[in-house]
Amino acid sequence: MVSLREIPSVDQILQNPNTEQLLGSFGRDWTTQAVREVLNTEREELKTGKPCPSEEVLISMVSHELQSQAQLSLRPVINATGVILHTNLGRAPLSEDALAQIQAVGATYSTLEFDLASGKRGKRDVHAADQLIRLTGAEAALIVNNNAGAVLLVLSALAKGKKVAISRSQLVEIGGGFRIPDVMKQSGAKLLEVGTTNRTNRADFETAIAEGAKMLLWAHQSNFQIVGFSSSPEIAELGNLAHQHCLPLMVDLGSGAVVDTTRYSLRHEPTAMEVLAAGVDVVCFSGDKLLGGPQAGIILGRADLLEKIRKHPLYRALRADKLCLAGLNATLLHYLKGEAEEKIPLIRMLALKPEEIKTRVEAWIAELGFGSRVKGRSTIGGGSLPGQDLPTYLLALRCKSIPRATAALRQQNPPIIARVQEDLLLLDPRTILPWQEKDLLKGLKSIENHIEVQE
Ligand SMILES: *Cc1c(COP(=O)(O)O)cnc(C)c1O
Q1: pTM score, two decimals?
Q2: What are phi and psi of 135, to 5 degrees?
């Protein structure tokens, strides 16, 4: 029978010269806590009859515990899935300039709410707002934390206690718990469902206005699509109708492209500029979807309405932080300078030609000495352009055990997230940033033992 007294005390471990280095790296409090945790676990093990490890082994267990506790859980990964706007993997990667601006503004004090010309207090959202106005032709712009917040804010400020008419086909759930009817309820607006699931027409909206609707809402169906016998009024038509009755039209654009997606052989997504030109009074969209910037909710539209929104208490609660504004600033500048395709990673990924991707896959295979090249499709993701994809080439690896191979890839530094199709591991170069290739190849080489040799 082993006595519990055989286990060294916390002090004994702390005083062991081999613990010195841990104390230096992790501090006394944290190290002491880890020693306690390890000793507690070992005490339990002792009761089951296991022998007590030596002090050296215990210290290495403490070291292991501390290293794993110090590992940051929010870490960069290599996205080899080919899903360009992967919400679980953080949506849009930022441009070098956006990152540099975030670094510069974050490292010191800034003009966040300070007007350099007058030396007086300024407004935080003027920064990106000026660029948004120049880029889209909007009368005014506001930036909040994300688009879900933007929709809630706009409805709360403009439609609380009022009836808002929206087509039944647009009462969607976006994912992550964002449901249009729920957000509307939360804002205090009253939902007036118009038309049927598949078809809604102008007359349906006229009826809704006769029933007391005070605002019309058009919402992007996001990652949902109705195909077949379906129709609903165009944004411009709704705008005309709303304005005939002196009512505002609000549009939740979702992804909010500012580039013409048909350039990349994708279906046309209404751009922020187009909906504003069509007479929409307020439009909101995400900063980190097709815009390719940091997480943000962008609100554009009529100056009088935006002033009302700015004065609402929720605006203060949802306002964007300085790092978001710094990143958005730099991202918008790329569009203004006409260099989005070269500088914004997301747009560059959309623009990549299959031939360029093919060359990359071939270079990987040559370097790795295993794997094969197959044709495939990259998807947009993030609720943008449902059912739309881009032709690509994939690196295909046949694995002995897919669960083991994917787990091994996730253990790389940085972790590699791949796509799985039956017994094939598929990696799409489109979503892998060129500077990540070295790490990718190193990671793939280190899991070679999981790959089946191909003839
Ligand atoms: C993505 C999306 C939202 C939510 O935007 P977040 O920036 O993720 O908060 C709202 N509405 C639509 C139509 C969307 O596609």
Answers
A1: 0.92
A2: -70, -40
